[in-house]
Amino acid sequence: MSERRPSLWASIKEALGGTQQDFTEGSISRGIALLAIPMVLEMTMESIFAVVDVFFVSRLGEDAIATVGLTEGMLTLIYAVAIGLSMGTTAMVARRFGEKHPAAAGTVAVQSIMLGLLVAGVVGVGGAFSASRLLELMGATSGIIETGSGYTSVLLATNVVIMLIFLNNAVFRGAGDATIAMRALWIANGINIVLDPCLIFGLGPFPEMGLTGAAVATSIGRGSGVVYQLFKLHHPGSRIRLTARDWRLDLHVMTRLVRVSFGGVLQFLVETASFVGLVRIVAYFGSTALAGYTIGVRIIVFAFLPAWGLSNAAATLVGQNLGARKPDRAERSVWLTGVYNMVFLGAVSIVFIVFAEPLVRLFSTDPGVVAAGVDCLRIISYGYVFFAWGMVTVQSFNGAGDTMTPTWINLFCFWICQIPLAYYLARTIDMGPRGVYWAIAICYSISAVIGILLFRRGRWKSREV
């Protein structure tokens, strides 16, 4: 008699409660669900950080909001290193788990944390004492500097919690323990949501710290999440467990981690820089067009969170199955995840095309802004089916430790193709902001096609990490 497959509800409960599933065996669809559900929720929690801070900070005036924006710009480099190291960490931990070498995975985790501490230490010392000067270099007015130097100083000085919360969660994802990664963000967000108004406005026994209070609340929240992660990393019940003997420098493993992660850092920087270029082109057409574009992109990014969760699940499945010497199973995992992602984003595209106007009106009632936002949402939505495959293939390369292939794809599609095409359509042939939106839809679709073709060649299967 064949073994009865658990129900969907049972799989959801297991995904949220923690699983001991071996992702190199059994149903691939079930493995995707067990990984993707907590990964989607983890990414949602990460996005809530920024929303919560802006919600409360907006009560303090324009200078406070501007400070948050400028500081986020400075933190982009920290995010780039954190995300890049996370890609390498997930790939190497997943590979060691697939090889059934959890102790070796622990060694990768320790080297990743040490690298994160090193980078964060350099940035923290420099940033803590140079916040005012850095804000000035970013173009801040004297009012912004006076209001926001404390906020910037605190976030730069405590950037270690940003670095570690990314890296530790990368370890858990690579090990297939996505539930712990999700819970760490729940803890961090919950504490941040509670402390934000208390420290900003001085509620109850808390001091009124203004904008600086938002930074303190965020750092305490993330720091609490890091403490939970470190506890779990040393807990006997975790998939990956560190002991005192693991905390030692291993230059060989660290060098390999840096090599694999380098492409991940470049991926993030290339894509982020191209986004800045697109904003610059849209800004030429005035604040109304820019506001509509901003609203449209915010809606798109929020809707993409489940799609990124599915893509991250593919990365873990690829890494673990390559480690288990099951490249065919790794490939099937990617194709199946891609189909699920295509169905999801295909449904989202229909919703966005049909209901674009009421969705944009949730954020603005200005007729010009609404019109620009609707154009943005509808035109970019035409490429969602391709976007779905692009996300999955990029993360699959990353999961295999091949971080440079997506970097070259991004460089070609976003800089050689997207920026010139957006400029040509928007300004040379006078399509206006619509030209930028069409360039995004076209070039992201091209990147997906290239990603699929390169993935089918199969060179990622022989990548050693």
Q: What's the total count of β strands?
A: 0
Give the overall pLDDT as a whole number: 88
Helix content: over 70%
Biggest pleated sheet: none
How many distinct folded domains?
2
Poorly predicted regions: none
H/E series, N to C?
HHHHHHHHHHHHHHHHH
Percentage of residues in strands: under 5%
Alpha-beta content class: mainly alpha
Summed up, the helix count is 17
Computed CA radius of gyration, to the nearest angstrom: 22 Å
- How far apart lie the N and C ends? 40 Å
Shape: globular
Description:
This protein has 465 residues and is mainly α. It has two domains: 27-249, no CATH class; 263-462, no CATH class. Helices cover 81% and strands 0% of the residues. The protein has helices spanning 8-17, 28-57, 62-98, 102-128, 131-137, 142-157, 159-175, 178-201, 211-233, 251-283, 287-323, 327-354, 356-361, 367-381, 384-399, 404-428, 433-457. Helix 4 crosses helix 10, helix 11 (287-323) runs antiparallel to helix 12 and helix 11 packs parallel to helix 14. The radius of gyration is 22 Å and the shape is globular.
